[in-house]
Design a protein that fits this description.
Strand 6 and strand 7 form a beta hairpin. The protein is built from five helices and seven strands. The strands form two sheets. The protein has a four-stranded mixed beta sheet with strand order 1-2-4-3, with helices on one face. By secondary structure, it is an alpha/beta fold. InterPro entries: UTP_pyrophosphatase-like, YgjP-like_metallopeptidase.
């Protein structure tokens, strides 16, 4: 018989703290969630600019601190492996152009930039240059691919008319990627509540 969600053993409420930078981990809000059902495993994931760490309820405060540090470092390492350098980005753009545009979109340069905070990407067709915002680093691959394809399409069609969107229709995750990016923008516009710290 499946467990009744209304009658499960109560778990302590989640704790919210602000973590200092540790090793490769990034600083930010950390929420520790203890679970009576969790016996040995510890896991963590990012939720916006918060990190959620799931631990067994029986862990001591010292074990909790150690595992939060370990999991922050582990997440940071995973994220850094997913990030592409400029050379990787240019190779990726070439593959996408071949796959979706028969190789017709051929940029001269493709690179990450840190000065684009209101746009995800930009293209200067006259120079054949494509720039992607560093804010995309660590986002799902299909989102980065969509932004790359969007800028590659501008090498073929400068504006955002019907011909431009027909080109992007070839990419099956266009709508999903646009929805993801719209969600990021909406989340960033939400007011942030102050982080509560436990004594």
């Amino acid at each position: 018989m499946p467990a009744d969600p209304l009658h499960r053993a109560a778990s302590p409420p989640p704790r919210s703290t602000t973590s200092p930078p540790t090793g490769g981990g990034r600083p930010g809000a950390v929420e520790v969630r203890r679970s009576a059902r969790r016996r040995r495993t510890v896991s963590a994931y990012r939720e916006g600019d918060r990190t959620i760490v799931l631990i067994p309820a029986r862990m001591s405060e010292a074990e909790e601190r150690r595992w939060v540090s370990v999991m922050l470092d582990k997440l940071a390492n995973q994220e850094s492996k997913r990030r592409l350098g400029d050379t990787d980005l240019a190779e990726r753009a070439e593959r996408l152009s071949e796959q979706y545009f028969e190789g017709r979109a051929r940029p001269e340069t493709v690179r990450w930039v840190t000065n684009q905070n209101t746009r995800w990407g930009s293209c200067t067709p006259a120079e054949g240059s494509i720039r992607l915002s560093h804010r995309l680093q660590g986002m799902p691959e299909y989102v980065v691919d969509y932004v790359l394809l969007h800028e590659l399409a501008h090498l073929l069609v400068p504006g955002h008319g019907p011909r431009f969107w027909r080109l992007l229709d070839a990419y099956p995750r266009t709508e999903r990627a646009r929805g993801f990016l719209e969600g990021v923008v909406a989340a960033e516009a939400l007011p942030r509540s102050p982080v509560e710290e436990d004594d």
